[in-house]
Amino acid sequence: xxxHTVRLACLSLALAPLPLLADNDFDNLRDLAQDDxxxxxxxxxxxTSYKAVSPAEPLGLLGFDIGLELTATxxxxxxxxxxxxxxxxxxxxxxxxxxxxxxxxxNVDVGAFYAGAPGTDISLIGGEIxxxxxxxxxxxxxxxFRLTYSRLEGVDELELENTGIEVSISKGFxxxxxxAGVGSIRTTSEAVDVDELDEETFSSTKLxxxxxxxxxxxxxxxxxxxxxxxxxxxKASLRF
Length: 240
Description:
Elements: H1 2-15, H2 34-48, E1 64-74, H3 77-83, E2 92-104, E3 108-116, E4 123-134, E5 142-153, E6 158-170, E7 176-191, E8 200-215, E9 217-226, E10 229-239
Antiparallel strand pairs: 1-2, 1-10, 2-3, 3-4, 4-5, 5-6, 6-7, 7-8, 8-9, 9-10
């Protein structure tokens, strides 16, 4: 059963990026009303904001976590179609990622990711710095604070970036480590060379919960709601 779960997770990470999103870039932004541009920006903020998919406990000086990740975020399909030259075949935006974390001294961890949406020019970069106030033990949970940053890349028509602050708590039970947290994401979104649309700057509350399962290969599952928009993430990684 365990081997089957690992194989299924790896297969999902490999195949999930394949849904058709052909030629979808944001080259029709000038056709949007301001309210629609705000909705588009909120959906993209939820999709592109940093997602650690990791518990609060520190990795330690020699620790690292590197793997493949997939996030799917619900979106307003009609507005995405209006903003782009193509059809969005799905009601969500899949973002496959390469994600790495490294432990540093004094309970500090750093992380970074790169993502790209299949069939589009959309790509993302982002990172975090995290401090674990409580390391966690057999009887006590771990508690961590995180600062995050992410930026949309590859899209000439839209500039979007997110900064965030989060607090998370986790508690290990043998091979299982559930975790949860809350945060605030600050997003700036600007349509490039579109005078009809004003820049949007807004803050979104983020709630998230997840589970890490260490089976030799580490599996991470996370659900979050950012500004009312849900996202779901799956990660398969090597974690030491």
